[in-house]
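Anyone else keep sequences and structure tokens together like this?

Example one:
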Amino acid sequence: MKMRRFWLIALLAPAALGAGVITTHRISGALPKSGLAGNGITDIARSGGHLWLGTGNGLSRLDLATGQFVSYTPAQGLGHGSVAALWAHGDTIIVATATDTVTAADPAALPKGTGISFSFDSGETWRHSPQPGPTPIQNLTYDIAVNASTVWIVSYGGGVLKSPDWGLSWVEAAPDTFNFDPYGKYNHRGFSAAAAGGALWIGTAEGVNKSTDNGATWRNLTHVSQPEPISGNFVVALGCQQTGGRDIIWGATWVAEGETEYNAVSRSLDGGLTWKTFLRDEKAHNFAFDDSVVYVAADNGLFVSHDLGESWYLYPPMRDARDGERVLGTEAYSAYAQDGTLWAGMADGLARTSDNGFTWEIYRAFVPTGRGGEKRTYAYPNPFSPMRQNQIGGDGYVRFQYNTRAAARVTVKVFDFAMELVATVIDGEYRTGPAECAELWNGRNDYGDLVANGAYFYSLEIEGDGTYWGKVLIIN
């Protein structure tokens, strides 16, 4: 999570904020698209028989009974861009979206909130309003919580806001006694929110804030305010675990500015009075709980603890037991667990296991080849950086996507711009069919050296079908 300077008009007193032009969409002709919207799964929530997935390319819904994905776009009432925050319970779904923009004051890309969308009927209709707050720039909603029928949203540039009427209006709600000022006060710059056991928790750029009266009064908990404190004051995620008749609060606590701060996961068994830290130096992004089991989605992967954090296990790289499809990269962004089934939201897709990680099913978004005017093969990501993207074991990988019309042996070779052979990716390997397939190349030649920057061509030879060509641009 990068911090960039931002420009705000400081507001001196709490005030009701209009939600702008509120639009309502009923899905009729503009039906949700089939399939998963994107592979970066930033949020996961469940309501009834549906699993809701926030992705870098919009919102998706998985019908757990049929296994079918559908995805929602602005045509169905959502904001433009990626899903920045997601909350679901019963038939009610709340989605915050965001995108990048530029301003005259700062030509670099800045995040911009594109609004909040509500559905009260499991996605059949949506009500959308523009991003609330003093400015949309640097004001995207990072998290959503609902406490005592009040909706709470948190953002960096827009601060902490609450809505008593399910998004029809918003009220500034600083988690302390100071005038609302996200520009001047770190504790008004929100990152995370959670509600459970009658308590409301808000994570900011200056620690954890707790309220037991729905925001009327607050207690601020920081790295220096307690003998046994959180590890760092950037609280980018919060989770409430309910197990054994008690509420346990977890925080992804990153370094802010203090010299003694460190990245870790912080846990409190006593309502925030004392904290214990785990996974030191790990940057965590999200939590999931299945009774006493704790899951942490982090930069280096998905961690699990069966003893409330005293010991941890890091899941190895995930591979689909059906077809060998791999999740590339280590970053885990989100997770959801219930009754022994775990869903992991990765940077490279969605993974599911019901046997504690012994076997996985992988779900990925891709454009089918050879249909709807698409070529028989393409490479992605493209351009591709072997040193930065899809990292596993020190190598990065690009996929060569294609389809087979029948079972066949397949050969894939990579050539440089002079059409000299650089690497043989696979040679006469058997592939089932008809099927969508993908082969992985690590950007190295047949001698194991990383190739130079530039354009490369690859040939896809399918036995009994033909030879097809694609192109990939290497940039390191």
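And example two:
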Amino acid sequence: MLERVTPARLLAVACALLVPLFVLGWLTREDPAEKPWLQILGGGFIFNYRIAEVYYGFTAAVARPLPTGSIVEATFEDPAGGPPLVVRQRVGGAEMSRLSLRSPPVRGVEAGRDYKVAIRVFERDGTHLLWSDELAFKSDLSDKVVPDQPLTIGPGYARNPAAGH
């Protein structure tokens, strides 16, 4: 029986098993060039009543390495109806795995309404678009729960005398 096992026969059996597996793997692989640059992990509204601020934003994982010096731009809808709020962050490099962008402080947030965010990734020159996506965030609260003036001031959260405690 051992005479039938030869190196040529072992190689033929190995090829007969490996070639279909290789073909199956090739056909089901994900092309890295087709993956989005960013994967949105989550986001939403933050109401900080102590300092009387409302903002919204998102956190994203870098799904494939961004070219060094790339620019991630987020255009936030202004809940008050003004022009869109644009935030840009220069990123890139293999060591970067996550990033977070948030709007400047906003007012006019209504509960249950969608607010759109457009996300774009540019090359380092800021003109060549690499990727874009849109998403929307909804608040469960109106910004009427946030006071007009900060309740506290300073790093120790001292009472703000102007807030009328």
